[in-house]
Design brief:
Keywords: Cell membrane, Glycosyltransferase, Membrane, Transferase, Transmembrane, Transmembrane helix. It is found in: Cell membrane. Pfam families: PMT_2 (PF13231), YkcB_C (PF24878). This protein is mostly helical. Among the domains are: 93 residues; 153 residues. It is 53% helix and 3% strand. The protein contains 28 helices and seven strands. It has a five-stranded mixed sheet with strand order 2-1-3-7-4, sandwiched between helices. The protein has a two-stranded antiparallel ribbon with strand order 5-6. A hairpin with a 7-residue loop joins strand 5 and strand 6. Helix 2 packs across helix 4.
Length: 741
């Protein structure tokens, strides 16, 4: 009998884990390499231990990835075992997603029972942003898994007052720091508050434990950073996206303060997150005003007004047509915030900051809010059922505090921050929302079935209706998805609303008495139907990833993915395994290089990543990820040319002023390689057509459509160099052989 009971209890979670595995792994190869910047780094890390330890972006160890090492170490190990491919580097995240589903089940079940744990696991498994992060080589779900393991131990530490469990929890958070730096600390309020309010040990002991634990946390967190910074700079890659070649500055700057306020960033003129685009092109000084092909690399034709308004994509020239694959999806933001910003809208911080940000019409909306109302009402119900007040002497109370203090700070951060964050960062909110949804639904059912004079029983139907209304709101933002999908979604929401209304009527008719078995069964059936009604839409959004390729650098699922797939995707992202335009360039380089350390010098990692993936050879990204890093002096570069370390330099691309002196020198002293030798003429013309169009503004009177204007003024010849996509069409290959005597 025990065996039968065990199987019955475990059967639902087994099915959910299979569902999670299908969502995370099915047809995973369509994602190609995912984020090519990270993928190129993993390929480089496979070459030698030095590259591996320092997380080198390029095979020659010139500059590092601008993230800590642990997530990419795991990806590199996976690639070593299975062979380097897009699948092998995404595999760890997909597996971490499935493990996270089991962890949320285990943690919630431990305190609130099997049904609550099962519901929580199901909600997490079908949350769109969670699935999107699982199917990409961004490392966020590795962090989520690590933090959930930390939750297992902090829950035990708070319940039993065991110091060793607290230390294990904080060590795990420190490990998480070495996956995504300060993002791991978003759980700190939950951990510290949960332990502080525990009644298992005295206040004095708790403070002592937390002080010691904080020291341990700091030591683990900073261990790799300190080691790297102690190594002389000539023996390691430059720390990408740092201003002074130290990991500590990277922690405090690009991966720290810039996540709270990017007002001083200047978008393309400042550092940014891989795959994301900032506000405009930088400062006026960075843009300059000369002619690139006359020797001034600092040309920028954008105006200061454009930069301040965030109009990133204002590509001039051409015939005014929108290139294939760059069409904006009707009814979606297309990556642009209502306030402007072009592709800068993919920075969550550039959507309007308010308590309603995550519910508004923007690139964030349909990624995480699917169960948020249920979680909020669920916490209220849980607090009522558990009489949430001092003393906190049982695991249910403590776990409620743990989950709500995980959720609230993150909700406030993502709602109000003006810093840099990407929509897939919202996967951090998925575990507490899922946990509180499972806990809450069980708690609300308890309140509903009880014979009581108060109105707390209304929490169940009201929460389900509120959740359904939010999902209906999300549907209204994506008017161009297929009629069949709309019909299914609307039908499921009608089911939710109808069943919720019947719950109210049924309770009123029975006058609060649901103690009889028959009455309880009817109530359970109606609750199940209403809950199923709110599961359908996020499940559809998550399942969309199986047949629709996500943007590699900006992964997202949900109705946004379906909408973009219906209309063509505007986002510029990784090409994955779909090919590239660099084949002829690579053939030229391989035919002409001799023993140079770097077969090519480019302005930024975005110009280098595809060539690294195809060749596995040294490419110098002169300015780091987006060209903003000041890595080499002109004298040092000349020395490298003289020593035969570099020969070919490709100007143009995503450079943004940090290497103006070097590129100006290259243009004055290098020999121009005929374009016909390294780039197909047809491809070159297509590339110009791809980039020569002008997105001038957001027409608020036309819903979320855009005005496209032809700007064929004839004055852009030779003007497009350097920063951002406006300069991509002006790439020129130079041969520096013999330029330095």
């Amino acid at each position: 009998m025990k065996s039968v009971k065990f199987k019955k209890e475990k059967f639902p979670i087994a099915i959910i884990l299979i569902l999670s595995a299908v969502l995370n792994f099915a047809n995973l190869t369509i994602e190609g390499y995912g984020n090519e910047y990270y993928a190129a780094g993993v390929k480089s890390m496979l070459i030698n231990f030095k590259n591996f330890f320092f997380v080198s972006f390029d095979p020659a160890g010139f500059v590092s990835i601008d993230k800590p090492p642990l997530g990419f170490w795991i990806q590199t190990i996976s690639a070593k075992i299975f062979g380097f491919s897009g699948w092998s580097i995404i595999f760890p995240q997909a597996l971490a997603g499935v493990i996270s589903v089991w962890l949320i089940y285990y943690i919630v079940k431990r305190s609130f029972g099997n049904i609550a744990g099962t519901i929580s696991a199901l909600c997490l498994a079908i949350t769109p942003v969670f699935v999107a992060a699982s199917r990409n080589n961004t490392i966020d779900n590795l962090l989520v898994m690590t933090l959930l393991i930390a939750c297992v131990f902090i829950s035990k530490a708070a319940e039993k007052g065991r110091f060793k469990y607290l230390i294990i929890s904080l060590v795990l958070i420190g490990i998480g720091f070495n996956i995504k730096m300060l993002q791991a600390y978003m759980i700190i309020p939950a951990v510290y508050v949960t332990y502080l309010i525990s009644s298992a040990v005295s206040v004095k002991q708790k403070i002592k434990h937390l002080l010691i634990g904080t020291i341990v946390l700091a030591v683990v967190s900073l261990s790799w950073a300190v080691i790297v910074d102690l190594v002389p700079s000539q023996y390691r890659p430059y720390v990408g996206s740092s201003t002074n070649n130290t990991v500590m500055e990277l922690i405090l700057g690009h991966n720290g303060l810039e996540r709270f306020n990017n007002s001083g960033m200047g978008g393309m003129g400042g550092r940014q997150v891989p795959g994301e685009f900032g506000n405009g092109y930088g400062t006026q000084n960075q843009r300059g005003s000369g002619n690139a092909q006359n020797g001034n690399w600092a040309n920028r034709q954008k105006t200061v007004e454009d930069s301040q308004n965030g109009n990133m994509a204002n590509f001039s020239g051409g015939n005014g047509s929108i290139p294939e694959g760059m069409k904006l999806p009707e009814g979606s933001s297309g990556g642009r915030s209502p306030q402007g910003g072009g592709m800068a809208g993919n920075f969550g911080g550039q959507t309007e900051a308010s308590i309603t940000r995550l519910f508004s019409k923007n690139v964030l909306s349909d990624q995480i809010v699917w169960f948020l109302p249920l979680a909020i009402f669920g916490f209220i119900a849980g607090a009522i059922v558990e009489k949430l007040k001092f003393t906190f002497d049982n695991r249910k109370k403590l776990d409620l505090i743990l989950w709500i203090f995980w959720l609230i700070p993150e909700f406030l951060y993502f709602s109000y921050t003006k810093g840099l964050f990407h929509q897939y960062y919202l996967t951090m909110m998925a575990p507490p929302i899922a946990a509180l949804s499972g806990i809450g639904l069980v708690s609300m059912w308890k309140l509903y079935k009880e014979k009581s004079k108060n109105i707390t029983w209304l929490l169940l139907p009201v929460s389900l209706v509120a959740n359904g209304l939010v999902q209906l709101l999300m549907l209204s933002y994506y008017s161009n998805i297929s009629s069949a999908i709309k019909t299914v979604i609307v039908s499921s929401l009608i089911l939710c609303f109808s069943a919720s209304a019947l719950l109210i009527i049924y309770k009123a008719v029975r006058k609060g008495n649901l103690e009889q078995v028959g009455n309880i069964k009817v109530g359970k059936a109606l609750t199940a139907l209403a809950f199923i009604g709110i599961l359908i839409t996020p499940a559809i959004g998550s399942a969309a990833t199986i047949n629709h390729k996500m943007n590699g650098t900006m992964p997202s699922a949900g109705l946004e993915l379906l909408s973009n797939s219906e209309s063509g995707n505007f986002m510029m992202g990784g090409r994955g395994s779909e090919g590239s335009n660099n084949e002829k360039l690579i053939k030229f380089l391989e035919s002409n290089i001799t023993d140079e350390k770097y077969i090519l010098v480019v302005s930024s990692a975005t110009s280098a990543q595809d060539i690294i993936l195809q060749t596995g050879k040294g490419i110098m990204a002169l300015g780091g990820f987006t060209g903003s890093d000041k890595i080499l002096t002109l004298d040092k570069f000349k020395t490298m040319v003289k020593n035969g370390e570099v020969r070919y330099v490709l100007t143009g691309g995503m450079g943004r002023g940090s290497m103006d002196d070097i590129m100006n020198w290259v243009e004055k002293n290098g020999k121009v390689v005929s374009e016909s030798q390294w780039r197909d003429t047809v491809e070159s013309q297509e590339r110009k057509g791809y980039l020569h169009f002008n997105i001038t503004g957001y027409d608020k009177n036309a819903d979320s459509k855009y005005n496209y204007k032809n700007n064929n003024s004839g004055n852009n010849s030779g003007n497009n160099s350097g920063g951002g996509p406006e300069g991509m069409n002006s790439q020129v290959l130079y041969d520096l052989k013999g330029s330095v005597k």
